[in-house]
Amino acid sequence: MSGILVVEEARRDGSGRIFQETLAAGRKLASLTGLALESAAVGEPGKNIFLQISGPPPAAGHAIRHPLLETYTADGYVLAFEQLIRKLEPDYVLFPHSYQVRDFVPRLAAKFGQVLVGDVTAIEDGPLFERQLFQGRMNATYRREGKGPCFISIQNGAFRADSANGGAMPIAEFIPEIEPEQIRTKPGEPFRESAQTVDLGSAQRIVSVGRGIKDAANMPLIEVLAGALNAELAASRPICDNGWLPMERQVGSSGQTVAPKLYLAVGISGAIQHLVGMKGSQCIVAINKDPDAPIFEVADYGIVGDLFEVVPALTEAVKAAKQ
Ligand SMILES: Cc1cc2nc3c(=O)[nH]c(=O)nc-3n(C[C@H](O)[C@H](O)[C@H](O)COP(=O)(O)OP(=O)(O)OC[C@H]3O[C@@H](n4cnc5c(N)ncnc54)[C@H](O)[C@@H]3O)c2cc1C
Fold first, then answer.
1. pLDDT tens digit string along 189-211?
2. What is the 317 CA–ligand 1 centroid distance (Å)?
3. Domains and CATH numbers, the chain
4. Cβ of 25 less than 6 Å from ligand 1
5. From CA 278, how far away is CA 247, in angstroms rounded?
6. What pTM does this model have?
7. Is any ligand 1 atom within 6 A of the Cβ of residue 308?
8. pLDDT tens, 64-80?
């Protein structure tokens, strides 16, 4: 095979959204290079992999089966994918940028003398792979050099999954050679996202707060603004990591994806992991004291200023407008 291999992660939640997005990235790469697209996954077709393909299906699917792969281990997955990739010889291997992929793919890439180009947000003519550095302050582009396979992982939310139901593809079974003594770790319970009781996804207005708020004691400032706007409260990850708001109010690649009519970002820098969770909002307003903050690149309205001055003034203006 000279082409593109898109890897699906076996599904526990049934959604498969990140696989469909990675497939969309694979199709973009195929259209730029003219290469054929195939897919691979560990598991049983129709049970936990290849359940549904949205958009035009890949030319073929490879189902990797082995009793030692029933639970995930980095050793097992590296051995299995190394053997499949040596057999198929793809030019590009695309993965979703998941926790599992971050765990085993750097080692897999090293087996081929390659690196993983992680967190790719765009693919352009060349083909060039774009990713952000230094919290979105710089973009870096990468391209494949030499003959080995090029390993890429695709940022959650960076490509739009095709919504059309795509139909079936021919599936071949691949049985790798793995011995029990080659697996050096014993897997524990898989990580599960906590159940979400707040559905930010259907909120019409969201006031979202970031590290610019500085201290938990300042949170009431934001709560009063959200109250005046009749908006849901949300936050960037550091706020939830600090326990200033519950985890379920985190927006971004490891939080919720939202698309309200109004998204007001207060003291949020606009790191890519945050942007992918809110860039679909209809109107984005950002308050930040740094005129170069990346959030302003996606904002419809930007207020460069100190939130401790701007937020109280805005709250008063909203209250006055409602009277
Ligand atoms: C695997 C992974 C997953 C992640 N998932 C997420 C995720 O789901 N969601 C998420 O948000 N992040 C996520 N992150 C973290 C992300 O990379 C950023 O670190 C985070 O979004 C930064 O949050 P912030 O913008 O609040 O803080 P900072 O980047 O520290 O920005 C604070 C901003 O406040 C501004 N500011 C400071 N003081 C004031 C003031 N007085 N007035 C006005 N503005 C002020 C500053 O100029 C700055 O722009 C993830 C990271 C990784 C590695």
1. 766 655 556 778 778 899 999 99
2. 27
3. 3-182 (3.40.50.620), 200-322 (3.40.50.1220)
4. no
5. 16
6. 0.71
7. yes
8. 999 999 999 999 999 99
